[in-house]
Design brief:
This protein folds into three domains: 62 residues, Nucleic acid-binding proteins (OB fold (Dihydrolipoamide Acetyltransferase, E2P), Beta Barrel); 160 residues, P-loop containing nucleotide triphosphate hydrolases (Rossmann fold, 3-Layer(aba) Sandwich), CATH 3.40.50; 62 residues, Probable gtpase engc, domain 3 (Ribonucleotide Reductase Protein R1, domain 1). The protein starts with 7 loop residues before the first strand and ends in a 5-residue tail after the last helix. The protein is of the alpha/beta class. The strands form two sheets. The protein has a five-stranded mixed barrel. It has a two-stranded antiparallel sheet with strand order 6-7. It is built from nine helices and 13 strands. The chain is globular, with a radius of gyration of 22 Å. The structure holds guanosine-5'-triphosphate and zinc ion. The site of zinc ion has 7 residues, from helix 8. Zinc ion binds next to helix 8. Keywords: Cytoplasm, GTP-binding, Hydrolase, Metal-binding, Nucleotide-binding, Ribosome biogenesis, RNA-binding, rRNA-binding, Zinc. One of its GO terms (molecular function) is metal ion binding. Belongs to the TRAFAC class YlqF/YawG GTPase family. RsgA subfamily.
Length: 314
């Protein structure tokens, strides 16, 4: 009788549907699938995996099974009305990459920030294409309320380089960072600069796993500097950011500009939508007063509150 094979530790560095790429501490990568029906492992998960027995699975794209997930520090996810989609686990921070052009959606930015706040993951906002001049100045101005909320915000010009890239590198060092951004903001440019060749390699890997399917539907972890523990996680889908896991009654807690006025509300269970004596409503003012709530942000709050109060629609 042969001894039971030992479970080995690994890190999930990519997911493609139900399949995962698991990286061992020595750097070897293998395709694994989770045991059982549910696919629960996400990029950034520490797992224990088991090699497939000779003749089982090997050569069919499965080198092992994921037997156990280690406890997570956090789980960044979006949830739409029908399916829950996890982005990644065990993050140190989220980098929200937007650009002067194409114009970004403030609602999407707010949604990403709320998702980060809900999991207590610090966000960094980077505004790319500072070389564009006027459009950049305008976009930077639009972001004033977010600076007033205390968010870390960085101007960038990925195309022309410059010292801001050094500042970004400083912030990324030794950390695992999830990068989110709308199409055209410069995400591919950033990943290519930090990890030359990475996107090409991912395309090839994706093809091997999933012939013919589009490569950008997967989440992938890239090592910028493995020894220093610097990793970037690229995940598509900024557009479809549902927040249905967030309770409408807690929404204000995840919007710092709104949260700081809650103490002024007359009713402890104020929804800040129509109540008399609401500290939040009283603070909604146009202009750049540091302590006010911008009408745009208040509208985002109201829209999200309505959306989250509906509950799931099937
Ligand atoms: N002017 C200017 N253009 C930039 C800068 N960074 C990236 N771009 C350009 O913006 C366009 C979009 O950049 P990508 O890196 O492909 O953007 P992406 O976010 O990966 O977009 P998708 O591939 O659609 O997801 C490209 O034409 C880049 O050359 C910058 O700092 N300044
Ligand atoms: Zn109120």
């Amino acid at each position: 009788m042969s001894a039971r094979p030992a479970l080995a530790p690994g890190l999930v560095v990519a997911t493609h549907g139900r399949h995962c790429i698991v990286e061992s501490p020595d750097g070897t990568r293998r395709i694994c699938h989770p045991r059982g029906k549910k696919s629960t492992a996400v990029v950034g998960d520490h797992v224990l995996w088991l090699a497939a027995a000779q003749g089982q699975g090997q050569g069919q794209g499965d080198d092992g099974t994921i037997e156990k997930l280690e406890p997570r520090r956090n789980l960044f996810y979006r949830q739409d009305e029908i399916r829950t989609k996890s982005f990644a686990a065990n993050l140190d921070q989220v980098l929200i990459l937007i650009a002067a052009e194409p114009e970004f959606s403030e609602t999407q930015l707010s949604r990403a920030l709320i998702a980060a706040e809900a999991e207590r993951i610090p966000p960094i906002i980077a505004l790319n294409k500072s070389d564009l001049g006027e459009p950049f100045t305008r976009a930077w101005g639009w972001l004033a309320p977010y600076r007033a909320m205390g968010y870390d915000m960085l101007p960038l010009s990925l195309k022309t380089g410059g010292e801001s890239s050094g500042e970004l590198a400083q912030r990324l060092k030794g950390k695992t960072t999830l990068v989110l951004g709308p199409s055209g903001a410069g995400k591919s440019t950033l990943i290519n600069q930090l990890i030359p060749g990475a996107l090409v390699a991912t395309g090839e890997l994706s093809q091997a796993l999933n012939t013919g399917k589009h490569t950008t539907t997967s989440t992938t972890l890239y090592w910028v500097d493995k020894e220093a523990g610097t990793a970037m996680i690229d995940s598509p889908g900024f557009q479809e950011f549902g927040l249905h896991h967030v309770d409408a009654r807690h929404l204000a807690d995840f919007m710092p500009d709104i949260k700081r006025h809650i103490a002024g509300c007359k009713f402890y269970n104020c929804t800040h939508l129509h109540e008399p004596g609401c500290g939040v409503i009283a603070a909604v003012k146009p202009g750049d007063e540091a302590d006010s709530i911008s009408p745009r942000r208040y509208k985002i709050y109201g829209d999200l509150f309505a959306e989250l109060s509906q509950g799931p629609r099937y």
